[in-house]
Design goal:
Blueprint lengths: L12 H9 L5 H19 L2 E3 L2 H16 L11 E5 L26 H8 L3 E6 L33 H8 L5 E6 L5 H7 L2 E4 L19 E6 L2 H11 L17 H4 L8 E4 L1 H5 L5 H16 L3 E4 L8 H16 L17 H12 L2 H14 L4 H22 L5 E5 L14 H6 L5 H6 L2 E9 L5 E8 L4 H18 L1
Parallel strand pairs: 2-3, 2-4, 7-8, 7-9
Antiparallel strand pairs: 1-3, 4-6, 5-6, 5-10, 9-11, 10-11
The chain binds glutamine.
Length: 485
């Protein structure tokens, strides 16, 4: 029987920050208490690839010294945050949970890390993930199998499985993940935490190991919607190192949560809910959420996303095509592991053969195929056309509503090894993937528990740069959930 190692109480970044500012607690005390929590149950959860307590405490000590001298970098100086193993932190391993990057240490900070450090956040370990962020259960890590803190026989979701499990197990108040097709929202939903995928271009990907560059986005996993807003305020911005970032962005997301707002117009694509693959408990919870929001005075309108059925097919053409190109850089010369051979070509092939796991190889092969001459028009070009139709579906839907409400995944977390067919695994992204194809923002918030005791999540989707309305709506829903308890 699996264990439940979810703590009784969670502390948010907002609460920690208040105590730090009031001088009621130090960063060393905070970090030590999280390290103690890891010492107690990390052996069951295995969320981290690396956890260097000494380094964390040294950074915490430096933060306390700044605050004591009146030089705190922000109200959050000293708050710890866990980092997914595909985001570069100077001098720390950045292995993407892959054998091919064994021994590689990042020589620079990702822009998101530069921003977190400038606000005084303490980087708290490297979190396990599906190899190169390819997967939905973290079973594709070349290392440990991270478990779901609610039931350690079950998967935490993926690919940011370590990031979600660490928050759910109370190992740190927040983490960073990356979301290419659902990798922040799906594990957040499996582990009962909040997960935000910002609009494409909101947050710089400089220093994120690229999987599919037209889809990848970094975002936070937290215990509250407010914390997601706090972190988004820190992370956003145009970056000359990432030409896809959007200029002239305005923040103020955390402050916007306490604004008086008019009732929201919430769009519901009924086809998502009528989908026969949707688990009965997830369906019931989604319908109940709609009723709760209606009772709170919000307007529910029906919207249509007619091309959603083609999203998975389009994604697995586009994402694999981009991955096959992005992963060409791992050949044993520039990064990590190198196979021994006197022949250069053999060295490349052996390095890649030994270094990549089965799922990564599958994606590289598929991506190379869809881009190959004669097939490009039939697959890649067609997928891009579908992508445009999906984007237009959202644009049309948002003419009628502020945000869209959907389930996050068709089911709750499943047991290790129970989903064997890769295609079936791909289907768990059915509600999240179209958001990445369109570039919108979306958030997963806890929405009760299923009869098997596992968490259920609810997804809100916002228009491009619609994070303010998105976070406000998620915050309202979070409040309704608390009231209902
Ligand atoms: N599960 C999806 C995949 O395997 C999404 C992964 C992600 O968002 N990084 O590609």
């Amino acid at each position: 029987m699996g264990k439940n190692v979810v703590p009784e109480k969670f502390v948010s970044i907002a609460e920690l920050s208040k105590k730090l500012v009031a001088g009621e607690i130090t960063s060393v005390e905070i970090c030590q208490s999280y390290i103690d929590a890891c010492n107690a149950t990390e052996a069951d959860v295995k969320a981290f690839r690396v956890l260097d307590a000494e380094k964390i405490l040294a950074d915490a000590k430096a933060s306390d010294a700044r605050r004591a001298a009146g030089n705190a970098l922000s109200a959050y100086d000293g708050v710890p945050i866990g980092i997914k193993d595909n985001i570069s932190v100077t001098g720390e391993a950045c292995g993407c949970a892959s054998k091919i990057l064994e021994g590689y240490e990042a020589p620079y900070d990702a822009t998101v890390i530069t921003k977190l450090k400038a606000a005084g956040f303490v980087c708290f370990g490297r979190l396990n993930m599906d190899e190169f962020a390819m997967g939905s259960s973290t079973e594709n890590s070349a290392y440990d199998k991270t478990t779901n803190p609610w039931n350690t026989d079950c998967v935490p979701g993926g690919s940011s499985g370590g990031s979600a499990a660490a928050v759910a197990a109370g190992f740190c108040p927040a983490t960073l993940g990356s979301d290419t097709g659902g990798s922040i929202r799906q594990p957040a939903n499996f582990c009962g935490v909040v997960g935000l995928k910002p609009t494409y271009g909101r947050v710089s990907r400089f220093g994120l190991v690229a999987f599919a560059s037209s889809l990848d986005q970094i975002g936070p996993l937290t215990v509250t919607v407010e914390d997601a807003a706090v972190l988004l305020d820190v992370l956003i911005g145009c970056d000359k190192m990432d030409s896809t970032t959007i200029p002239n962005q305005e923040g103020g997301f955390a402050a916007a949560l306490s604004e008086e707002t008019a009732p929201k117009k919430i769009g519901v694509p009924m086809s998502y809910i009528e989908n026969e693959g949707l688990d009965a408990d997830v369906k019931a919870a989604t319908l109940k959420a709609i009723e709760q929001l209606k009772a709170d005075g919000h307007e529910i309108v029906e919207v249509e996303l007619p091309h959603a059925d083609y999203a998975i097919a389009a994604y697995y053409v586009i994402a694999t095509a981009e991955a096959s190109t992005n992963l060409a850089r791992f050949e044993g010369v520039r990064y990590g592991n190198r196979a021994q051979s006197n022949d250069l070509l053999e060295m490349y092939t052996k390095t890649r053969e030994n270094g990549f796991g089965a799922e990564v190889k599958r994606r590289i092969l598929l991506g190379t195929f869809v881009l190959s001459s004669g097939y490009y028009d039939a697959y890649y070009l067609k997928a891009q056309k579908v992508r445009t139709l999906i984007k237009q579906d959202f644009e049309k839907a948002f003419e009628k509503c502020d945000v869209i409400l959907t389930p996050v995944t068709p089911s709750t977390s499943f047991e290790f090894g129970s989903v064997k067919d890769p295609l079936q695994m791909y289907l768990s992204d059915i509600y999240t993937i179209s958001v990445n194809l369109a570039g919108n923002c979306a958030i997963s918030v806890p929405n009760g528990e299923a009869s098997n005791g596992m968490p259920i999540g609810l997804q809100f989707i916002g228009p491009i740069l619609g994070e303010k309305e998105l976070l406000q709506t998620a915050h309202i829903f979070e409040g309704l959930q608390k009231e209902a308890k």
